[in-house]
Every structure is written in structure tokens, then in C-alpha cells.
Specification:
Length: about 450
């Protein structure tokens, strides 16, 4: 995985009560809210059941998450180190949200969708969480999101970029957190048509809705252009290797490569391409850009790969004097789990998501599920965490729930061991400059 120093929004009262200052409290507060936001995105009357504020007491706001802490996608567990550090920081410095500490219950799903569904059932029914937060994986969220929407359980800032999370009408209780994979694919299509002479493209994708989002959007984006997809290879998420698929793609000698891969398949793909002797213009999913994954690739295998980001890279020295970056590094070192690597972009993303969910909680008219969901659907130029200059979180209750629709093109520099920011002509930008690609309001249009 975009200017401003991080703000804790201390001046905004948690639950932002407009009358007597009493927020909903305790699991017994179900139905405590008599105020329904007029014309809001969510309506508890449409749900099978509605519990207004489970997991909220006078002293606590309990969130829950499921993500891979084992298996081939276990690297993504580092995201939680970032938001755990942020919550501990807010709890220590701000006494949480109006005296309510943010607590977290997490479960390991090994990136297996059926385990995610079981975990979510337990989080909601047994652990009594107020909301789900940053659940990882497209198929994993798809396994349960019909149920949680039917039950009016907020699924906040989902940890994937599937276009599904922008379905404000059909699934208003679910909202994403990162640029859509479809937008990423459109960025690469635009890059190839506007900056290169490429005419052929080969694609490797995970065989599920994660991979489909890239392939379908890319094929839509190149309609009417000189680009042609000459081959698509797929792999299962639990496959041990992707060498045979990459070998087949290399045999096409396509000018460009789109990698809709994630987890350990990222370095495996980089290595297989390098070993094949194929040298395409290569774009990889933003989920592949963590130094933890890049570092698993063979020397030289990642040089020149292209991707996108919307966050400052903790490894990049151009941000060393940036106030938000300094705060992040200081507080993660102080409050994060032992051994947390502050240079890992996954940790930086987690920190940013912690700041974003705190904003949604503070800006809610009250601490009920309905009010917090409405807050998440009405983000207005929210600049928190490590967002790059020129990028902010925006949503609208008028139909746009895609949280981030601006991106920065990046290219891996093997000598510096980090991603350079690219300008409009593909040149490496000088420190402090960005070239933001603006797809605001266009995600639905580019989705395949």
C-alpha cells in the first residue's frame, strides 16, 4: 500500500451527542437509540434483528476481526500490529473515546473463508463485539457479509480492495478501506496505453473474486485500445507454487504482465518471471508491495515492478521529517507488540486504519451501530495516519462508498530497496512531490 499530521480529533466528543451527552452504554443498550438519521444509508428496520450497541459500555468499545495469522497469507497479520498500537496510543493519551477504551478480539482464519465465517459468527454471537473491523480477504468477507448486513452488524473498513465493498444500496453495513482492485487495474491499463508501446498483456490471477476483480476491470479498461490480453493463468489460493503458470505466460512473450496475486504468491511470481528470462512491463497488486513480501524474492527479481499506493512508505527517507511519520514510528515503537517492524508498510496501513475507525467512532452522532455506520458513509476529506499529500478518505451517503479513489503510481528500486514515486510521464519524482491519479467518483465506472 497516501499530507497532514495525524490528529486525534480530541476536540470531537466520542459519540458526538447533540443533546444530554449520554451515549448508548452496554449490551443492554440494544434499541437505546430513538433517533434514526433522516434519509440515512442504513435502516435497522430492514434488518432481521438490530442490537444498537453491544460491546459498548461506560468503559469499553469492543471491536472484532478475523485475519490470517497462519498459512500462506500470514504476513498480513502485521496489519493488526499497526492498529493495535494506534488503539493503545489513543487509550493511553485520550482515554479512548470519551473514556471508553477501544478493545479488540481477533481470531485466526488462515485465509480460509469457511473459518472466517465461523470466526465472525463467534465474534458477533459469543464475544458480543460492537463492530467488525478490517477483516482480511475478498472471499473471506464474501462468506459472511450477507449475514452481517441482514443482522445490521457494521463491517468497517474491510481489508481488501474488492469493488463489492462499494455496494451502498445492497450491502450498506459493509465498507472498504483501500483503493478498489478495479481502479488499480484501470491505472495499469492507462499506464500502458498512455506511456508505452505495449500491445500484448499476460495475466496471472488468483482463482477467486480477488483475482477476478483485476482481470475483469483490466479487460474492460482496454476495450477499444490496441492492447490485447493474450493469456490468463489462474491458481488456487492454497496452491504450493505458480511456476508452471508463469512459464506458460512467459511463452507468450507478452509485452506486459498483470499480477493479481497476493501473499506468498507475490515473491513466488517475481522469482518465476525472473527465472524464465521474460522481461515484461510488470504491474503487481498493491497487496504485494510490503517489504516483508518483497524481501522474500530473489535479488533483482523485483526491480522495476510497478504498483500503486496511497500511503507514505516508512522506509522512504523523504518522509523522515514528516510529522505524521514521526508520530507513527514513535508510537508504534512505544505501544506496538514487541518486535513490530515500523518500516513495514502493512504496519503503516494498520496504523492508518486504526486512525480511520477512531475518526468514524468520534464523528458518530452517538455510539450505536447505525450512527457509526452513517459516519463511515460520510467521510469528508479525512486525512489521518500516513496518507500521501493530496489523498484523503472520502465517502458520500449519496451513493459513493468507495473510501479511497486517488492513487500514486510507484516503481520498485532494487538499489534503494524501496518504491519510488512516479510522475505523469513515468519519471521518478523528486522528494516531496507526488503525482496523484484521480479516480474520484469513477470506481463504479471502471469495475468490470
Amino acid at each position: 500500500m497516501p499530507l497532514v499530521a495525524l490528529a486525534l480529533l480530541a476536540a470531537c466528543g466520542g459519540g458526538r451527542d447533540d443533546d444530554d451527552g449520554d451515549a448508548a452504554t452496554g449490551a443492554g443498550a440494544a434499541g437505546a437509540s430513538d433517533t434514526d438519521p433522516a434519509g440515512g444509508v442504513v435502516d435497522p428496520a430492514d434488518c432481521d434483528s438490530y442490537d444498537a450497541a453491544p460491546g459498548v459500555t461506560d468503559t469499553e468499545i469492543k471491536l472484532g476481526s478475523s485475519f490470517p495469522q497462519s498459512g500462506t497469507a500470514a504476513a498480513f497479520a502485521e496489519i493488526s500490529s499497526g492498529y493495535r498500537a494506534y488503539f493503545e496510543y489513543v487509550n493511553a493519551v485520550e482515554d479512548g473515546i470519551d473514556g471508553r477504551r477501544i478493545t479488540l478480539v481477533t481470531k485466526d482464519d488462515g485465509y480460509e473463508a469457511n473459518r472466517t465465517q465461523s470466526n465472525v459468527d463467534a465474534l458477533v454471537q459469543e464475544d458480543g463485539v460492537f463492530a467488525l473491523f478490517n477483516v482480511i480477504g475478498t472471499p473471506n468477507n464474501l462468506a459472511f457479509y450477507d449475514d452481517t448486513d441482514d443482522q445490521c452488524v457494521p463491517n468497517l473498513f474491510v481489508g481488501t480492495g474488492s469493488p463489492f465493498w462499494g455496494d451502498q444500496e445492497g450491502h450498506p453495513w459493509t465498507i472498504g478501506s483501500i483503493p478498489s482492485y478495479a481502479t488499480e487495474a484501470a491505472v495499469f491499463a492507462d499506464y500502458l496505453t498512455e506511456r508505452t508501446d505495449a500491445t500484448t498483456v499476460a495475466i496471472l490471477q488468483q482463482n477467486d473474486d480477488f483475482g477476478n476483480a483485476y482481470t475483469e476491470a483490466f479487460e474492460k479498461a482496454i476495450e477499444g485500445s490496441d492492447l490485447d490480453v493474450v493469456e490468463v493463468q489462474t491458481y488456487e489460493s492454497d496452491a504450493p507454487d505458480v511456476t508452471s503458470q508463469v512459464t506458460s505466460l512467459a511463452d507468450t512473450d507478452a509485452d506486459a504482465f498483470l499480477g493479481a496475486t497476493t501473499g506468498l504468491k507475490c515473491p513466488a511470481t517475481f522469482n518465476a518471471i525472473a527465472s524464465s528470462g521474460w522481461d515484461p512491463i510488470a504491474y503487481v497488486s498493491a497487496t504485494c508491495t510490503s517489504p516483508r513480501l518483497i524481501g522474500l524474492a530473489d535479488a533483482g527479481a523485483t526491480d522495476g515492478i510497478i504498483s500503486t499506493s496511497y500511503l507514505k512508505d516508512p522506509l522512504d527517507p523523504q518522509w523522515d521529517e514528516d510529522e505524521a511519520m514521526q508520530l507513527y514510528k514513535e508510537k508504534v515503537a512505544e505501544y506496538g507488540p514487541d518486535g513490530t517492524d515500523v518500516t513495514d508498510t502493512l504496519v503503516g496501513y494498520g496504523w492508518t486504519m486504526g486512525a480511520l475507525v477512531e475518526h468514524a467512532l468520534r464523528e458518530a452522532t452517538e455510539l450505536t451501530r447505525e450512527a457509526v455506520m452513517e459516519s463511515a458513509h460520510d467521510l469528508q476529506e479525512v486525512e489521518v495516519g500516513l496518507v500521501l499529500p493530496g489523498i484523503a478518505f472520502n465517502t458520500s451517503p449519496e451513493g459513493d462508498s468507495f473510501v479511497v479513489e486517488k492513487l500514486q503510481a510507484i516503481q520498485y528500486n532494487g538499489e534503494k530497496k524501496l518504491f519510488d514515486l512516479l510522475g505523469g510521464d513515468g519519471e521518478v519524482l523528486p522528494p516531496g512531490e507526488t503525482a496523484i491519479l484521480d479516480y474520484e467518483g469513477k470506481t463504479a465506472d471502471v469495475t468490470g
